[in-house]
Specification:
Belongs to the BolA/IbaG family. The chain has four helices and three strands, in the order αββααβα. The chain has about 80 residues and is of the alpha+beta class. The chain has a three-stranded mixed sheet with strand order 1-2-3. Strand 1 and strand 2 form a beta hairpin. The longest helix is centred in the middle third of the chain and has 17 residues. The chain is globular, with a radius of gyration of 12 Å.
Length: about 80
């Protein structure tokens, strides 16, 4: 599995329920690091944030396509200040 596949998939799925979301993905194979940029998700509790992403990744985790995921969440302002 490639990072661009994960990025496209997650942005598509998350944008169905969020007004604005950007996902930056690093890694390859079955280990990925996600930077999720969304003002809406940042407003949620840390557990709810992760649940909203894992809900879409669970099929790939279950079949072994993805083994490890690290997530960081940023508001759009915090992301802009970081880069």
């Amino acid at each position: 599995m490639q990072a661009n596949e994960v990025k496209s998939f997650l942005e598509g799925k998350l944008s169905e329920t969020l007004l604005s979301v950007q996902v930056e993905v690093e890694g390859e194979g079955c280990n990925f690091q996600l930077n999720v940029i969304s003002d809406e998700l940042v407003a949620l509790s840390p557990v709810k944030r992760q649940q909203s992403v894992y809900a879409h990744l669970n099929p790939w985790i279950a079949d072994g396509s993805i083994h490890a995921v690290t997530m960081k969440f940023f508001s759009s302002t915090a992301w802009a200040e970081r880069t």
